Amino acid sequence: MKIIRHTDPGYPAAASALNRRAEASDAVREVVSGVIKAVRERGDAAVLELVEKFDGAKLTPAQMRVPQAELDAAWDAADATLKSALQASQRNVAAFAQRSLRQEWSFKNEQGATVGEVYHPFERVGCYVPGGTAPLVSTSIMTVAIAAAAGVPEIVVCTPCGRDGTVNPGLLAALKLAGATEVYKIGGSQAIAALAFGTETIRPVTKIFGPGNSYVVEAKRQAFGVVSIDLLPGPSEVLILADKSGNPAFIAADILAQAEHGKDSMAGFLTDDAALLDAVVAQVAEQSATLSRQAQLTPVLEKGVFLMLVPSMEEGARLANDFAPEHLTLITTREQDILPLIRTAGAIFLGNYSPVAVGDFLAGPSHTLPTGGSGKSFPGITADMFQRRTSIIRLDRESCARSEPVVSAISAVEGLDAHARSVFIRGV
Ligand SMILES: NC(=O)c1ccc[n+]([C@@H]2O[C@H](COP(=O)([O-])OP(=O)(O)OC[C@H]3O[C@@H](n4cnc5c(N)ncnc54)[C@H](O)[C@@H]3O)[C@@H](O)[C@H]2O)c1
Ligand SMILES: [Zn+2]
Description:
Elements: E1 2-5, H1 11-17, H2 26-55, H3 68-77, H4 80-100, E2 105-108, E3 114-121, E4 124-128, H5 137-149, E5 154-158, H6 169-178, E6 182-184, H7 188-197, E7 207-209, H8 214-223, E8 228-229, E9 237-242, H9 248-259, E10 266-271, H10 274-288, H11 294-303, E11 305-309, H12 313-323, E12 327-331, H13 335-338, E13 347-350, H14 356-361, E14 387-394, H15 397-414, H16 417-424
Parallel strand pairs: 1-11, 4-5, 4-7, 5-6, 7-8, 9-10, 9-12, 10-11, 12-13
Antiparallel strand pairs: 2-3, 3-14
Helix pairs in contact: 2-7, 2-8, 3-6, 4-5, 4-6, 5-6, 7-8, 9-10, 15-16
The chain binds nicotinamide-adenine-dinucleotide (NAD) and zinc ion.
GO molecular function: histidinol dehydrogenase activity; metal ion binding; NAD binding
Binding site for substrate: 236, 258, 261, 327, 360, 414, 419
GO biological process, one term: L-histidine biosynthetic process
């Protein structure tokens, strides 16, 4: 853990280093462009070679898709506690999604033309559900269930399999409940390439959603244009900003919950209270000893966790905006002053009793959120991202006549006389 105080000489540099921009390393970019090229040129064969190389599983093209019967059986076999937990999560997510959906509307413009917007669900989307280091059962709900709530008829999921070629049955159960219509057990950038460009087995989709590691995120970025994408949701992270009202045990628990995501994940803690900083450091040491995922925790605690004593909560909010955290926890007695200052967080958790884990699994908004600083440009997944918008324009003879002088004036400057004629030829 790095501990920096505003009284340290290194503070200005450490504070300005928080002002990040999301960019993949050259090495990741190169690997991914090689993968995309291979999948475009050689389809299934390339996908399966890469699955063997990165995930150690030997599959045939016929084994790529999880049969519907296996999805159904996974749901039937899931234990009752898991089923009701997944259902509770899905109910909250669907209810939240309903409120985010856009409705069609229209109005008459100044010339009397009817103009408006209509929305249709995308026909066929891809949702990536990570599975490299943990089977992200919750991500099934946080992507697929939202697509289903938006009315998307074809929801194609890719998720990596283990060396034995199987996918965690709890994950399959969640996908079934959430409403996945096709599930392929392939992961990584090869899965994104297959979804974007298609292979003999996988028909291409038009938009790709969902989080993943740096390879998955870079593949989505490189596929952009051929498909659209939701955002760039990479390795998970949290930033906690608290004044002396913060509970050190709760804060340490949230830092550790973040750290157990493993490689590349980050947790930061900013406070204006020196005693709280010390108490959180002590709590992290005490609590971390009793957790199971030491292999994931240790490297993150060494490299990915920083604690900073800032001169004020206002300065903390400024640094939080620079960092643009995926999750921001704000604990302060001055919420009305500090909350309005936060503009770039993917999701904001307020007060001592709002653990990020409840947002991960249950609360309602998608947990698929921007990371790596991309929150400055992208929001997290919302239901309306599964809707394609188009505009509608209808004129009658009268509104056409009233539009003519404006069209003629602009056509004259642009030198486009056919444009002007196409209006006045209508007898106006
Ligand atoms: N931002 C969010 O909203 C959000 C939500 C959930 C999860 N996540 C993040 O998703 C990530 C999931 O990562 P993961 O690794 O566990 O699973 P993953 O499914 O994203 O990636 C696993 C795949 O990566 C590929 N891969 C691994 N090493 C590679 C290499 N050297 N070269 C090329 N490809 C390689 C493999 O094909 C493998 O199938 C985590 O970082 C987690 O924090 C983010
Ligand atoms: Zn988490």
